[in-house]
Amino acid sequence: MDVSELLDPFERLLADVSTPAAIRAIEAEGDASRLWAACAQSGFLDALVPEAAGGAGLSLADVAPLLIALGRHAAPVPVAETMVARALLARAGIAIPQGPIVLATARGGFAGAVPLALVASHVLVDTGDALVLSALCDATVEPTGVHNDLAARLSWAGAPSGPTLPSPEGGLRAIAAIIRAAAIAGAADRLLDMTVSYANERVQFGKPIGKQQALQQNLAVMAEQAVSARLAAQAGCAGGFPPSLQAAAVAKQVASAVAAHIANTAHAVHGAIGISEEFDLQLFTRRLHEWRLADGSESWWAQVLGALRLGVDATSADFVRLGAAPQIPGRVA
Known about the structure:
Helices cover 53% and strands 10% of the residues. The protein has eleven helices and nine strands. The protein has helices at 3-17, 20-29, 33-42, 60-72, 79-91, 171-201, 213-237, 245-270, 281-293, 298-310, 316-324, and strands spanning 101-105, 110-114, 122-126, 131-135, 140-143, 152-155, 164-165, 203-204, 207-208.
C-alpha cells in the first residue's frame, strides 16, 4: 500500500477535527464526543484489527505514519491507544466496546498518570499477570492537577475487573511506549515547522532573527533531534505487533531524550509569546513533556535496554543489528 493513500485522508481528518480551537475546547470542557465520533466513523480505529475480524489487517509499521500524525496534530483523544486495544481484543475474541480506550500498566491497583484518561470510557490494564478491559467508571480517576492536562491517575479498590486476555510479550508498556515515541516525533516535526517559520518572520534590527548564526545552529540541532525521534519511532513500529521489548526501549529512550530539548529550543526562539496560552506553541510543548515521562522516561528505558544487552551473549554490533534496528520493509540487511 502506498503510504500516501493511507496518510493523506487521515491528515485531512485531523486537520479538520483536531484544530487548536477544538483542542482548547476539549481541555476546558472535557467533552471530546464530537471529535471522537469523527474518528470512529473514519474506520481508522480498526487499522490494526485482523481482516478476519473485520479490520484492515495492517502492521504496526504500516500505521507508523498515522501514529506520528496524531502527535503532529496534538490529537486530544486516544486514537492510537484505541487502535492497539481493539486489535488485541479482536485477536483474543473479546467483544470490543464503543468509545475511546486508554492503555495503563497498574501494580498494586494503581496506575500513574495515564495520558488522555479524562476523555476515555475504558482502560486496557496490564496487571502483570494479564490484560484486563475495565470501564473507567469502575476506577478512581484523579486528575494530575496540571493545567489543561487530560491525563489522570487511576486506581482500584481491589483488582481491575472485566474481560481478561493474555499480556503480550514485553507487556502493554512496550506498545504504549512506542505510541508515545511516535507522538513525540509528530509533535517535534510540528514544532520545528512552527519555530523555523517564526524565526523567518520575526524581524529585529532590520532582519529576520533566523539570519542570526547562533539561532541557525540551534535550529539545526533541533532538526537533527526531530529526525532522530522520527527514525526511532519508525524503528520501534518496525519491531512487530506486539513489538519486542528491545525495539520499544530504543524508540522511547531516543524520543524521550530529545523531547525536552526540542521544547526548550522552540520556546527560546519564540521568546515571550511562546509561553502565552493564546499562542499554539504550548499545545505541543506541554504534550512533549507529558509524553516524555509517560510509560517510562529515557532513563527508565535506558536501564531496560542495558539489562537486555547484558542478558545476551552477542557483540554490540549484532545486538543492535538484530534487535534494536529491526528490519524495515524494503530495507536490505
